[in-house]
TrEMBL record:
A Pfam short name: Polysacc_deac_1
Protein name: Polysaccharide deacetylase
GO CC annotations on file: extracellular region
Record-linked InterPro entries: Glyco_hydro/deAcase_b/a-brl (IPR011330), NODB_dom (IPR002509), Polysacch_Deacetylase (IPR051398)
Biological source species: Pleionea mediterranea
Length: 335
């Protein structure tokens, strides 16, 4: 099936008439979407289109979907009655300036709830984690290739175009997330030296972070904030003490700065069994959180029990047709 035909078929099967007829299938499942950065072509940053986010919000508002907060969604999942509306939920991770200045303000304009998970060192110190530093290094280099040894295994990537650089970044991030954090940070420094790219201690303009005054000005009944660790480090890379401190410390900073942070944690990177596991879920539970969200795709089920400390989220898609598939009944056929 061609891509064009596939999009036409999805649009037909998510039309108002079909959506209304399939409401009983969809009504007790909530898709929770995970947003990240806006695309910045000049800086080589892949991300969302603000226009597409607006189209998605307008589609929900015009077609009988009710946008609710993450707190509301989790509350509904614990109620003993069937819910009759088609709910949709949006979250956003990290703490970059563009996320607050453009995405959060768009949600405000549309009167749509958004839960914003902050890595608090980003706001406190202009900190940027090793994965974003790696992205910066690969995007900035003029070298044609990278050869490096990781865990005794030699690796080589061509860097002659944007597609090759994207492959290199993704491959390296996958490899480095498996190592202890000290090893990962050491290798990123080696890559920086090898490719002759100086990495500033504070985030440069393309990675500009939010400030506390801006966060405070955004906090409202619509825009809520929750913890996403302090340094945006993959928790499985850390020992027990540091993992605990990352979880606890991020929530404590939010409590110090904000009126009413949500009591829901967000795992960095968020793939269960890879980036977090039973150890992290126990820590989150013992620290008194109501729930935690992952980055694994899937729905929040309102009629069956969910793992409250590994709630699934869909990555926000790259086109409106795919978004329609996730919010309608179609994706449920696969899941």
């Amino acid at each position: 099936m061609t891509q064009g035909l596939k999009h036409t078929l999805i649009n037909l099967l998510t039309s108002p008439l079909v959506t209304s007829a399939t409401h009983p299938v969809r009504r007790n499942k909530v898709p929770i979407f995970m947003l990240h950065r806006l695309a910045n072509v000049d800086a080589g940053i892949r991300g969302h289109s603000l226009d597409l986010i607006e189209q998605a919000l307008d589609y929900c508002l015009a077609n009988g979907y009710k946008i609710i907060s993450l707190e509301q969604a989790i509350h509904l999942s614990r109620q003993p009655y069937l819910n009759r509306e088609r709910y949709v939920c949006f979250t956003i991770d990290d703490g970059f300036y563009d996320q607050g200045e453009y995405i959060a303000k768009l949600f405000e304009l549309k009167s749509a709830p958004l839960t914003f998970f902050l890595a608090t060192d980003m706001v406190d110190k202009g900190h940027w984690s090793w994965d974003y530093q790696l992205e910066y290094i690969i995007n900035k280099t003029t070298s044609d290739e990278l050869t490096i040894t990781i865990n005794g295994q030699p690796h080589n990537w061509a860097l002659t175009g944007s597609a090759q650089k994207t492959l290199c970044k993704r491959s390296l991030q996958t490899l480095l997330k498996k190592l202890p954090i000290a090893s990962t940070e050491k290798i990123v420094k080696e890559i920086s030296a090898h490719l002759k790219i100086n990495v500033p201690q504070q985030a440069p303009d393309a990675y500009r972070t939010l400030t506390w005054p801006m966060v405070k000005s955004l906090e409202s009944d619509l825009i809520q904030f929750g913890p996403h660790t302090q340094s945006h480090t993959v928790l499985s890379q850390l020992d027990d003490d540091r993992a605990f401190a990352e979880i606890n410390g991020s929530m404590e900073r939010l409590k110090q700065e904000l009126r009413n942070p949500v009591n829901i944690f967000c795992y960095p990177t968020g793939r269960e069994t890879k980036d977090f596991g039973e150890r992290e879920k126990i820590m989150v539970k013992e620290q008194g959180f109501d729930a935690a969200v992952s980055a694994d795709p899937g729905y929040l089920n309102l009629t069956r029990s969910n793992d409250p400390f590994a709630i699934n989220r869909f990555s926000f898609p790259n086109d409106l047709t795919t978004f329609k598939k996730y919010v309608s009944w179609l994706e449920l056929l696969r899941s």
